[in-house]
Structures are given as structure tokens and as C-alpha cells.
Amino acid sequence: MRPSSPSILIDRIDADGTDLECEVRCTPDLQRFFTGDPFRVSYDVPIDDVPEGVLAIPVLAHVCPVAWAHGGDVYVDEVDATFARALEDVKKTLLSLYPDFLEGGQLKTRRTSDVTPASGSESGLLFTGGVDSTSSYVRHREEEPTLISVRGWTITPDSTDDEKWADLRSRVSRFADERGLETAFLESNMLSFLDHPMLLAHFGHRVDGGWYSSVGHGLGLLGLCAPMAYARGMDDLYVAATHWDGIDLEWGSRPDIDERVRWAGTRCHHDAYELTRQERLDVIADYVDEAAPDLQLQTCNVRMDGNCSQCEKCYRTAVGLRLSGLDPNDHGYQFDDEEYHDLRQSLERGEWILGQDERYMWEDIRDRVRETEPRSAAERSFFTWLERADLEELVDNADSPLHHRLLRAGARNAPNGVYTTLYPAWNAAKASYRRLATNR
Prior knowledge:
7-cyano-7-deazaguanine synthase
């Protein structure tokens, strides 16, 4: 490692049974963006026989974008040659998206190995049970994909989220069992291994949302799956699109990122980008009519053991289900005509923090409203209001509270030694920053 230039060294990579652990060392200018903990992932299949060049992929997928933000190089003993080329392709995309603060850097390795792909013809799908991943399952159900769920981003590895993780596992397992599918559950400290509050302090004012949502999660989540995908012999790995063609937002999972991620034997796919969210609900509606009348969706921003039916995302999904010809009450939501009044009031009063994501999604709903005949007076009233509403005014781009903005500014300018001394105070703000990082 060259101490005179920004650098990250992957110092140790250990695979023990189903667990992966990597030690990371940094030069002082990058050290502040890491908590000092080893990078860890727990899989539910043994990874002892996975080649080292593939074992390096999860940690590289998370540290490389951080290094690129400071023009830093990343050092590792060995990496799969296919993934090394993929990193270069992803880097080009990210640098074109964020030219004002991503500088680039080099991957320095002793060996790039041409890993022999594992035998198999399986596919996998990152799956939560929401609209996007469920529609992707429907589109690829003939492949019988393994459903992959990850703990470490929206569900943290903290013990306070144990119940949420148990709820998600139970729900995904039930969905899989009913369809004869396999599941894969991954647990990682990938977000708490990074000092996300410090990344926000430096770059939060340059991205729409958190570091991981805006920059890191496409490469990060797919790369996290690499040892498991190799062990299971997966040829194809799907991640459902959040946005669609025509939406140009800062988001870390896009076709020009995800479609470029690959490693020995596995190619990744950004699925259903050609469909709007409402059209994905149409795909689900057809599937409900054909084969799954009792299908339950899980989209809530508040809970994992069902839907609260009161948050913006629950309301938005319920309206979308109605527009696709389904009764939301049959698919996990409590929604009747009187809810339209409460929904309108909440939107007009700014009771939710909405971003450009939500503006586009309500515009998508409004486009469908213009083609739909209301079924009640309450629905007609809401449709009329939505057609005339200025959705841009409903988007709340408010920053975090003032004392958090001051902390961010101070953290950006503090020497690393001072930052380390002040870390307990900064750490106290992490809970609110975690919400900012995950609420999109």
C-alpha cells in the first residue's frame, strides 16, 4: 500500500463454513469512512470451496465506490478476472453519474484468476415480496428462481431488528414453499461496516438520499450474493428495477450498473425496467387472476409483519392495486372508499417526506387514473383532485434537522483524530441517519 495516496487494502479473506470475514485497512484519508469492524457475511450454504477470487467480490463491491470518491486505489491479493472487468464498467457508469465528486481509482491485485464456473443452471432473484420483486418473480417463474433476501440494509444486523428479520424470513419462506422454490437468506454488516453517517456528512448533499441508496446498493447487493451464487451454480441473478425507462434519478441500481455486474459463471440482470410500477402491478394482477387469488404483498415502510395501510407507500400500493382491477383488501391492505379522503389530506398537509421517486410514482398513477372510470363518488373526487394536483409541490426535499447538518459539516472538516474523539456524539445521530439511508 502507498501511504501517500488514498488506498484501501483487503488484508484478509476467510471462509469458514457458511461465514465470510474480511479485514480491511485504509490510509487515514479513507479511514473515517469505515467503523473498523471486519466485513462479514453469513450465508446459508457452505462457501469453503468457493475460489478466493470470488470470495473477494462482496467486500470489493462495497469498498470500491468509497475509494473512487477519493481517487483511491484498492489492493487485494486475488480477484475473479470477470468481476475485475465488471468493476471497470460499473466505475465508468458511476463516474458519469457523479462527476462532481467521484474521481475513480484502480484495483491493484497480485492475481486476476480465470475462475472455472461452478456447474449448474440455476437462477436467483433478490426478493422482498414487494411490487417490484413480486412482478419479477412472475415474469421469471418458469425458471423457478431461488428467492434471495438480505439482512443488512433496510433490516439492520442490530438485535433490535431481529423480529423484523424473522417476519421477513417467515413470509418469504411461506411464499417459496407454496411455489416449490428454494430460498437463500444472507446476513451482513455491509452498511454498519461502512460509516454511513460519515459518508453522508461528506457526500449526502450531493446525492438524493443516502450513500448506499444513491451510489452503492446495486453493485453492493449483487456482489454480496457472489459466493452463494457460485456455491449454488447460478447462471443468472435478477434484481427488480425500482424506476423505469424515462426516469433519470440518482439511484445506485440501474440498468447501466446492474447489467454490467458479473463474475465467473453468473450474469446479473436489472429486471422490468421497461415497465412502470403500475404496469408491474398489472403483471401481478394477471398472475392473481391466473394462479394466485390469495397473493399477499408486503410494501410497508413501517412494519414487516404485514402492511400498516396508513403510510404513503401502503396507500400508493393500495390505489395502484385498485387501478389494476384488484381489491387491496384481498392482498394485504385495509383500504375502502373513505381512505381516499385521508390520503388526500395527508398528501396536502405534507405529513410524509416525499422525494422525486414518489413524485414519479404518483405521476404514473395519475396517468392510469386518466384512463380509468371511477367506481364511487369518493374515488371520483380523489381522481379529480389528483389530475389537478401540483405533484412537485407535494415533494418535500427538506434536509435533515439543523443540528444534524452542523454535525455533517463539522465531520467533513474534522481531522481524523478529532473525528475519532468526537465519534460518540456523532454516533448518537446514527439512528436518524439510518432512517434517511433506508426510507427510499
